[in-house]
Write a structure and sequence with these properties.
Layout (H helix, E strand, L loop, with lengths): L1 H65 L3 H45 L4 H9 L5 H24 L4 H26 L4 H28 L3
Helix pairs in contact: 1-2, 1-4, 1-5, 1-6, 2-3, 2-4, 4-5, 5-6
Length: 221
Amino acid sequence: MASNQTSLNDAKFAFPINDVEQQATLEIETEDFDYSKRAQWLRAAVLGANDGLVSTASLMMGVGAVKQDIKVMILTGFAGLVAGACSMAIGEFVSVHSQLDIELAQMKRENERRNNGGKEEQEEGAKESLPNPLQAAAASALAFSVGALVPLLAASFIRGYKVRLGVVVAAVTLALMIFGWLGAVLGKAPAVRSSLRVLVGGWLAMAITFGLTKLIGSSGL
């Protein structure tokens, strides 16, 4: 009787421990799944915002190196916004659609090789976790436009040439730090290192564009 009671007590204590372990495992797996699912749109959104910010600001700084007219600067930035958003959307759509075709073909080959029952249900369930080309394209275009609006809005209300350039650089610097930090936090990466990397890259792009355009413009070409 004593041995039976001991085994029953052990069993009673064993089940809650197993339940806790299983619950913790499920939570870990859920977190991993959420981040893997988030990776596609996060990559498109963060890259789109950074590209829109840096490319548009660099274009405006390049034009500002040789032209002090605010209208020319704004029109250049707006043209860069529209062209860049369309380019990002088309490029992202083609890229993600190619990836989707490859994964669907691989999934079909695996299902035919296994020849399991309920193959159609398994395939439909797996398709739901695959990237969406339209969603990625829209995220890229929207994020690019949001990033490009930062230098455009910063330059729109400043008439003074030198002050305008300084305000654009300051606004872009702040936005680069925010985008770098946001991407690091959502992607569980080091925030300081990511922000500094994005910030230095943006500064270099603007400085190189400004310097080369100033050099070519001063040579009379």
